Amino acid sequence: MSHTDHFVTLNPTLTAALDSFSSTRPLLLASDFDGVLAPLVDNPKDSRMQEESAAALARITGQDGITVALVSGRAIADLHALAHPQPGTILIGSHGAERGHVNADGSLHHDETPLPDSAQERLEALEDYAEALAATTRGAWIEHKPTAVVLHTRLADPDEAQRVNQALHSWAHDSRLHVMTGHNVVEVSVLKATKGDAVTALRHELQARSVLYLGDDVTDETVFATLGSSDVSIKVGSGDTRAVHRVNSPQEVSFTLTHIADRVNADH
């Protein structure tokens, strides 16, 4: 596929926004992983980035004045293992509760933030309850993170999924924990963190003049809400959103990233 084909695919309004963004320095390009760079799959361990998106990010990462960040609900070690990000990429995991970066040799540098003893005790109680709850429903399973657990119900009967989701919500509320809901998942954390807070903090650290963010889930709306007129917000897929622009699929994300890669390599 030629570069001209990429231009035809994108909405003209979005194309203009991408061109303006690509000419700005310093800038931050940040994206969710699942459902954006990688198509959604039943087993999260099977997620793989679109080849075209990986190739485009490889051309963008390392350009002067450009920082690439992957922002995910996944634990940061899981994100690093599945995304195979380029050296220099910033990784934000667990909805902002974890952060690190990719070293020059491709290994992960994890910014460690130990949990206070009281939070660790709450996490252990949460893990025990969630595992017992998931065991009552075929197709439900628990993902463990450093500060949270995630109840996955994509493969469960819809009525059973609703039952266990409501039970976990109620338990978390009674325990004064923090709940986030996404596509067939309920995440409960012992710490309050959002993708929006994490991206804002990174933006200020980098003194980025412009931020582009791609996201598909309700948790990504916390980022869209922080972006202004100098930024580019792109919702992937259907649903209500605060984002200004929209693309339909991870394949269209790859066209978007290729367009940016073409621009930044042509201009610099």
Automatic annotation (TrEMBL):
GO MF annotation list: metal ion binding; trehalose-phosphatase activity
UniProt-listed Gene3D superfamilies: HAD superfamily/HAD-like, Trehalose-6-phosphate phosphatase related protein, domain 2
A biological process from GO: trehalose biosynthetic process
Pfam families: Trehalose_PPase
Source taxon at top rank: Bacteria
EC number per UniProt: 3.1.3.12
Cofactor(s) named in the record: Mg(2+)
Classification via InterPro entries: HAD-like_sf, HAD-SF_hydro_IIB, HAD_sf, OTSB-like, Trehalose_PPase
Catalytic activity: alpha,alpha-trehalose 6-phosphate + H2O = alpha,alpha-trehalose + phosphate
The entry's keywords: Hydrolase, Magnesium, Metal-binding
Pathway, per record: Glycan biosynthesis; trehalose biosynthesis
UniProt keyword annotation of rRNA-binding present: no
Role description: Removes the phosphate from trehalose 6-phosphate to produce free trehalose.
UniProt family annotation: Belongs to the trehalose phosphatase family.
Name of protein: Trehalose 6-phosphate phosphatase
Source species: Jonesia denitrificans (strain ATCC 14870 / DSM 20603 / BCRC 15368 / CIP 55.134 / JCM 11481 / NBRC 15587 / NCTC 10816 / Prevot 55134)
